[in-house]
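Kindly review this record before class:
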Amino acid sequence: MSDFLWGVSTSAFQIEGAFDAGGRGPSVWDDFAPVHDNDNARVACDHYYRWREDVALMTQLGVNAYRFSIAWPRVQPSGKGPVNAEGLDFYDRLVDALIDVGIAPVVTLHHWDTPLELEAEGGWLHRDIADRFADYTALVADRLADRVHMWIPINEPAMVTLQGYAIGEHAPGKTLLFDALPTAHHLNLAHGRAVEVLRGYNARAVGTANNHTPAWPATEADQPAADAYSDIHNWLYADPVLTGRYPNSVAELLPVRDGDLATIHQPLDFYGVNYYNPTRLKLPSEGNPLPFELVDIHEFPRTGFGWPVVPSGLSEMIGTLRERHPDLPPVHVTESGCSFPHEVEDAARIAYLDGHLKAALAAGVEGYFVWSLLDNFEWEAGYSQRFGLVHVDYETQRRTPRDSFHWYRRVISGE
């Protein structure tokens, strides 16, 4: 286990705050509504100013890897044009500080905070954004490729398409249903273009962080609904990246041009799985425009978000990935965690992480990143959901390690 990556994960928009600092431009999430209780991320965890304290917390925790994202609007405020040096300097300092204390930087280039100006020009609905993303990748790689341990171009593209463009729960808040599918292809194309750029800068390791969920049919007769959902949630992103092909059920709905699939299908050094829970499906009711309906999973404990706690779903998903893709690269669990309302004593979080970590290790993964180091701005749920190993008092910004923090420290150290 000497090479195993014991990590934690965060994302820029959820923790940094400092909206108006250092030349940062606006992102699609800055003014997105509705958000729980009219919360916003203008301060969030104030990480932009308190990052040294957060690195010290990670040192105390004993992790050897930290997955964080770079805010595209902080590096390139409009999503195109020259680099904003002050914004990139922030991440340069963070990378150096992590290396100084023996923590490997694992960088995600896009964790949902698309520059607002690009969205005004069509966002992920227009294929030009893949070229803009490649340009942005080059700006970051030129500065950081010599030191970053692992690269993830795009976090959970499925959620950008499904929640951001199909049903409107996330920014940019569009409700296009199947008309959102072009965004999936453009996200995949941007991934491929970014991998090409990173290889050109001799990046050490390049992979993914795809959200995956086992799709369970409510009854045997509902298997077509589960298959349709899995094609859209799982295989629309995994298949082209890993094999250069789209699932047959959606292939004709995507704006694929000659050469696109070759660009998307780049060799990867690792495959990142973000897992939270399985999904149960049934055939749609009359009038439902989708080929499936979600069904409640009621027989398991639930997190504060109401998500069922099913550690076996993680090993099931990894097994399904390997069965479908026998040449799957080494797997890292790039996100795994849970929200609970507890302040410091959080036995339920410890139980969740213990079960999922054991499932991950039994599946032979090479790294496990807890979501999240800190309580943070949880997208449309605002500050109502707490995922952190570290409790954050948002009024004072005081950080208090929870019991789960100390549990994870003992696991890492082998106590």
In short: The chain has one domain: 5-413. The radius of gyration is 20 Å.
